Amino acid sequence: MSGKQVLVTGACGEIGQVLVQELSKKGGYRIVTADMMSLPDSIKNLSAEHVQGDLVYKIKTFYDYDFDIIFHLAASLSSKAEIATEEAHRINVEGTMQLLMLAAYRSEKYKKAVKFLFPSSIAAYGMPSLEAKHSAGAVKEEDWDNPHTMYGCNKLYCEKLGTYYSKYYGQKHLDEKPPVMLDFRALRFPGLISAFTLPSGGTSDYGPEMLHAAAQGKPYSCFVRADTKISFMAMPDAIKSLLMIMDAPREKLTANVYNVAAFALTADEFRQRAVKAFSKARITFEPNPRRQGIVDSWPEDVDDSLARADWKWKPDYDVDRFFDDYFLPEIRKRYGK
Ligand code: SER
């Protein structure tokens, strides 16, 4: 098949599955997938080739491919990373470094910039206190970049590494023309919510877990306080933002790292929406101090005006549309409620 060759790592994850489906719908791509797991049925027939195993050990395989675009989604999320910190660093940083080196090598050798798309996170921020979190409101990319978690440190550092390979890598050739460098584009995602899959290992997971439990009439004990507020986004908007930034002309981009936002709400506002939609929902709050601390260090909301100005980003789903037009209809179909 002709078209652009794309690598999607972490293809079996929540973002990966929908991204592969949407790339395939868009057409014109040969999609190579990579993951620790074998492909789920949802994308089995959409991947031209699947490389199963640990990316760090499989990297040599990828030097045989001519990738135009890399979506590097594989990661160990924030709660899991806090339990197995060194392992998280290996997955989140070494895996990214290996792929960046591959993309840098190919860009330089074939004089064609490989596009490198990287999902970063609100975990890159670190608010020093609840007072600072409340008064800061929606934060800009360059502020409060003092993560409190291994995952956040990993994401922030990989943003810097990607930017380095994209802008400064040629410094070794001081007296020559700089080489063609890779084209690194990162999005700082809020908590993502899909109607089709559940996250695992993250700390914003209470949002989707609560809603999926309510839809099934199962009790849910929320691991953060009712007043906990962070920003969230519908999965289709996350995919839309990734495809938009993939297609954005480089000259329009004034940054390598962009916030993307949709709606911010408290855990109690989630509960109220869940109870209104599913009368059998039983939701209680039993904060886990460790996970509460992580979410307290994340901003209440993010300012995505740079993405809106540079590449016309705009989410399709505000909070009402998220519930009424996406989540509730899909989840009712899924659980038959
Ligand atoms: N959703 C992620 C997590 O909770 C944050 O990027 O770890």
Overview of the molecule:
With 337 residues, the chain is of the alpha/beta class. It has a domain at 75-193 and 233-262 and 301-316: Rossmann fold, CATH 3.40.50. 44% of the residues lie in helices and 19% in strands. The chain is built from 13 helices and 14 strands. The protein has helices spanning 14-26, 41-44, 55-62, 78-83, 85-110, 130-136, 150-167, 206-215, 235-247, 267-277, 289-296, 305-311, 319-335; strands at 4-9, 29-35, 49-52, 69-72, 115-121, 138-139, 183-189, 191-193, 219-222, 229-234, 257-259, 263-266, 282-285, 301-302. α2 links the parallel β2 (29-35) and β3 (49-52). α5 packs parallel to α7. The longest helix has 26 residues, at 85-110. The site of serine (SER) has 10 residues, from loops.
What's the arrangement of secondary structure elements?
Elements: E1 4-9, H1 14-26, E2 29-35, H2 41-44, E3 49-52, H3 55-62, E4 69-72, H4 78-83, H5 85-110, E5 115-121, H6 130-136, E6 138-139, H7 150-167, E7 183-189, E8 191-193, H8 206-215, E9 219-222, E10 229-234, H9 235-247, E11 257-259, E12 263-266, H10 267-277, E13 282-285, H11 289-296, E14 301-302, H12 305-311, H13 319-335
Parallel strand pairs: 1-2, 1-4, 2-3, 4-5, 5-7, 6-14, 7-11, 8-10, 9-13
Antiparallel strand pairs: 10-12
Serine binds at residues 77-78, 121, 123, 151, 189, 191, 202-204.
